[in-house]
Amino acid sequence: MNPLNHVAIIMDGNGRWGIKYKKSRNAGHKAGLKSVEKIIRETIKNKIKFLTLFAFSTENWKRPKKEVNYLFNLLENFLINKIEDLHKKNIKLKILGSKKFSPRLNKLLNNCEKKTSKNSRLQINLALNYGSKSELIGAFKRIKIKNININEKNIIKNLQTQNMPDPDLLIRTGNTKRLSNFLLWQLAYSEIFFEKKLWPAFNSKDYNRIIKEYRNIKRNFGKI
Q1: Are 129 and 54 a contacting pair, CB within 8 Å?
Q2: Does the annotation mark 81 as catalytic?
Q3: Residue 142 placed within a domain
Q4: Are strands 50-57 and 191-194 parallel, antiparallel or unpaired?
Q5: Is residue 120 part of a domain?
Q6: Residue 209 CB: number of other CB atoms within 10 A?
Q7: Which of 29, 82, 129, 178 has a CA positioned 20 to 30 A from the CA of residue 12?
Q8: Residue 76 belongs to what domain range?
């Protein structure tokens, strides 16, 4: 049975779900938060130590301004209302990406990271304004400044995911089969599951089914 330490999820399909069932993309984003809470609970039950959620990419700024503003207001309200609960559950929050948001949101994100920094039950990595290509460019720039050799070990040390294992498992909902500039280095040997369900429809049963399938996969890592 395969060990499972790190699950990464591309939470795709909120807007499409909202249009289909509520005639509003924003309604889909709001409904998606309920799926986030369900998956956090199941991650804890399965004793998984790292959960990385792709919430907003560097490319998502191309969306309509009203939708982007709604997304960040939704995030602010979620963190304000839920951070104490996450902290009590011994959950650590880490932000991946570049914090180029409003001063209010940047302060909130920093405070949440600081408040939960010593927690150890589960680490949730929230990828915000994140793009893997930008992350890799940043790693190479840091290597150049440090004047150290470019090798696999030093690249890993200068990624935003340093000090954590690579994802064992990637789940992408929304019936889309691509990585969308997400953790391109870290996903090199991850098992990938593309799900037809849109993110707000993805539930605990779906998650546990995938975990069960993953645990029974024969993982060779180049060997026979």
Answers
A1: no
A2: no
A3: yes
A4: unpaired
A5: yes
A6: 13
A7: 82
A8: 6-215
Q: Which residues pair with 172 in a beta bridge?
A: 10, 194
- Separation of alpha carbons 35 and 73, rounded Å: 18
Nearest to 39 by CA among 154, 166, 195, 175: 195
In a domain, 203, yes or no: yes
From the candidates 60, 119, 154, 203, which is the catalytic residue? 60
Could you tell me the end-to-end alpha-carbon distance of the chain, in angstroms, rounded to an integer? 17
pLDDT of residue 222: 80
Catalytic residue among 2, 5, 12, 203: 12
Number of domains into which the chain is organized: 1
Entry field: residues in the chain? 224
Q: For the chain, how many helices (H) and strands (E)?
A: 7, 6
Determine whether 12 is an active site residue.
yes
Torsion of CA 107, 108, 110, 116, to 10 degrees: 150
Smallest CA-to-CA distance from 57 within 132, 113, 137, 141 is with 132
pLDDT in tens, 181-221: 999 999 999 999 999 999 999 999 999 999 999 999 988 87
- pLDDT per residue over 116-155, tens digit each? 999 999 999 999 999 999 999 999 999 999 999 999 999 9
Amino acid at 79: L
Packing angle, helices 25-45 and 14-22, rounded to 10: 120
CATH value at residue 185: 3.40.1180.10
- Look at residue 220 and tell me if it is in a domain: no
